[in-house]
Amino acid sequence: MKKIHILFAALLLMLPSCLPDTSYPFTYETIITDIPVNLSKINTEFDDYNSDIGFVSSRNYLYFSTNRNSSGDNFDFICEAIDISYHFEDDLFNFSFPADIEYSILQTRLFEAINTSSDELGPLTYSGVSEYDYFIYANDEEEDFDLKFIYTLKAEWMMPSSEGEINGPFSISFANSDYDDLYPAIHGGNSRLFFCSDRDNGQFDIYSTEIPTDVYLHDFFINTTDAEITKEINLSSDFNEKCPSISGNLLVFASDRPGGFGGYDLYYSIFDGTNWSNPVNLGNTINSPQDEYRPITASFYDTGFMIFSSNRTGGKGGFDLYAVRTEDVFFEQ
Predict the structure, then answer these.
(1) What is the 3-state secondary structure (H, E, C) of the chain?
(2) Domain range holding 109?
(3) In this predicted model, what pLDDT tens digit does every residue of 181-229 receive, in sequence order?
C-alpha cells in the first residue's frame, strides 16, 4: 500500500526520520492484527471518533473528535501520542501510548483557536509542497456543519518552544452550503478537495472541487467566491456516503448502502489516474452489525494499517477508535 502523503510537520515537532531498533526484547502494549483492536488506552466511555494522523514515524499524534471534555455534550478536538513499531522477528505491529505527554505550544494554540461550544468534526492535517501547514475541519456554529481551516507558517514552529501565528479559523465559503458540509480530504494525485454533504435531498454524497496548483491553498480557500463543485458519481449512491479519507490513490469512506453488514460500513475505491473504481466493501472482518465511521489509512515499514471508529459491542462506550492491519485487505498501491 502506498505510503501516506499527508503530514503536518510543525505539529509533529520535527520527528526523527530514523526508525527504532526493535531487535531487542520488547514489551508489547497494543498489538495490531488483521482483526480490529480497540485502542482502549485512549478511548473513554464517551464518543471518541473522526481521527487523523500525520506523517507516520516512530512517534505520532492522533487527532480526533471527542465529547469527553463536556461529559457527552459537544465534540472538541484533542490529540494523543502514539508510538508505532514493527518487529521483524515476531512479525508483530505494535501501538504504544506514552503517558504524561503534554501538548506543544502549537497544539495548545491550535485547540484554543478551533474548539468551541459547538461540535468540531472530521480533522485533516495537511501539508503540501509549500511552506505552510493546514488544519481543515468542520463545525456547526452556524447550525449546519461548515468547512473551516487554520494555517501556520512552518518556519515559525521549527523548535518545540517556538511560538508563531495561528491564522484563522476561516470558512471555506465556496464549498459550504445551507446543508451539512464536512469531512474534508485532499487527493494530491489530481489536486482536488473532497468532502461529504447532504445538499442533495438531505442525502449524504461525496463531492470534490479542483485545487489550483499556482496559488497557496489558504489563498484559494479564502479568496475563491465560486468554484465548480462536482458530485463524485462513482463513489455516491442512492444512500448515504460519509467520511471520505485519502492516502495516495486509495480512498476509504463509510456508507449505509445495501449489501453491507449493518449500519454504516467501510468501503474503499482506487484512483486509476482518470476515475475512481467502484467501491468495495471491506468485509465482515472489519465491518460489524453496528456503525463504522471515518476510516484513515497509513503505512509503516510497508505494513499497512487503518484507524476507524465504531459503536460495536465490546467497546468502552459510545464510539471507540479501532485499528487493524490492512496489507492483505487493499489492492497494492
Answers:
(1) CCCCCCCCCCCCCCCCCCCCCCCCCCCCCEECCCCCEECCCCCCCCCEEEEEECCCCCEEEEEEEECHHHCCCCCEEEEEEEEEEEECCCCEEEEECCCCCCCCHHHHHHHHHHCCCCCEEEEEEECCCCCEEEEEEEEEEECEEEEEEEEEEHHHHCCCCCCCCCEEEEECHHHCCCCCEEEEEEECCCCEEEEEEEEECCEEEEEEEECCCCCCHHHHHHHCCCCCCEECCCCCCCCCEEEEEEECCEEEEEECCCCCCCCCEEEEEEECCCCECCCEECCCCCCCCCCEEEEEEEEECCEEEEEEEECCCCCCCCCEEEEEECCCCCCCC
(2) 30-325
(3) 999 999 987 799 999 999 998 999 999 999 998 999 999 999 999 999 9
Q: Is residue 9 part of a domain?
A: no
Structural domains in the chain (count): 1
pLDDT (tens digit, 9 = 90+) per residue, 59-73? 899 999 999 999 999
What CATH number does the domain containing 107 carry? 2.115.10.20
